[in-house]
Amino acid sequence: MLGEHIDFTSDPEESDGGEGTPEPVSEVEQLRMELEESKNRTLRALADLENYRTRVSRQMAEERKYASIDLMRELLPVWDNIGRALEAVADTHNLESLVEGVQMVHMQFLEVLKKHHCEKIEAMFQMFDPNIHASVSQIPCSEHPPNTVIEEVQVGFRLFDRVVRPSQVVLARSES
Q1: Rounded to an integer, what distance in angstroms lies between the CA atom of residue 167 and that of residue 155?
Q2: C-beta neighbour count of 76 within 10 angstroms
């Protein structure tokens, strides 16, 4: 046994001769592995989040694209009725019947707008409000106070609380 190196630092009972025993992983190496695993989980989570954002963005774009489909479905019968009214005028020259038919279509159209929360802005004899009215002219008038709407040139509409189109109005002004 001369010349043989004997290792006194290891316990002979724990060793099976060095065959198949994994070397113990140092604490630093263990922490490196855990850090790498955490980095991978974080990258996967970020990729999943980005995929989710992309999917939601695509879905929202799709929903916006077709958001008015219900409105279109309700407007098509109005379009049909306008066509019928035009056909009726061609067949009969009964003006009274035509006016009645157009009035019915007009009311149907307003009902569709109202159902979708788009309503007329009441302007006549109201005080001028630049948030909902657009003044196109002023006329001297002693019957109404200055800045009162005395004529509506074009009806305005509001969708919920937003103005879709302001009312174009003529205002009263003092006669001086």
Answers
A1: 5
A2: 11
Q: How far is CA 75 from CA 67, 114, 164, in A?
A: 14, 12, 18
Say how many Å lie between the first and final Cα of the chain, rounded. Answer: 131
Amino acid residing at 154: Q
Does this model's pTM top 0.85? Answer: no
Structural domains for the chain? 117-176 (2.30.22.10)
Which helix (H) or strand (E) is 109 found in, with range? helix 95-115
The number of helix segments (H) and strand segments (E) in the chain equals: 3, 6
- Of 152, 176, 150, nearest to 166 (Cα)? 152
pLDDT in tens, 14-54: 545 455 566 677 999 999 999 999 999 999 999 999 999 99
**Distance in angstroms (rounded) separating the CA atoms of residues 56 and 40:** 24
Per residue in 52-72, pLDDT tens? 999 999 999 999 999 888 888
Dist CA 71 CA 48 (whole Å): 36
Please tell me the distance from the alpha carbon of residue 129 to that of residue 145, in angstroms, as a whole number: 14
What pLDDT, in 10s, does the model give residues 42-53?
A: 999 999 999 999
